[in-house]
Amino acid sequence: MASSQVEKKNKRIRKQFIVARINLGISQDYTILTLNNASPMKKQLFIILILITSAKASYSQNNKAYLKEHALPISKFDSLSSQIYEQINQYQLIMLGEIHGTNEPVNLLDGLASLLTKYGDSVQVGFEIPPNQMATFLKKRTSKSILASEFFSYPSGDGRASNAWYKTMANLNKNKQVEIFFFDNNTGQSGYSDSIMFVNIKAKMIAHPTWKTITICGSMHNRILPYEGQMKIGDYLILDKDLNIADKFCSLNLEFEGGETLWNEFKPMPSFYSSLAYDEYLFLYPKGTNEPYHGIFFTRNFTKSESAVVK
Question: Domain spanning 62-302 has what CATH number?
Answer without folding.
Answer: 3.40.50.11550
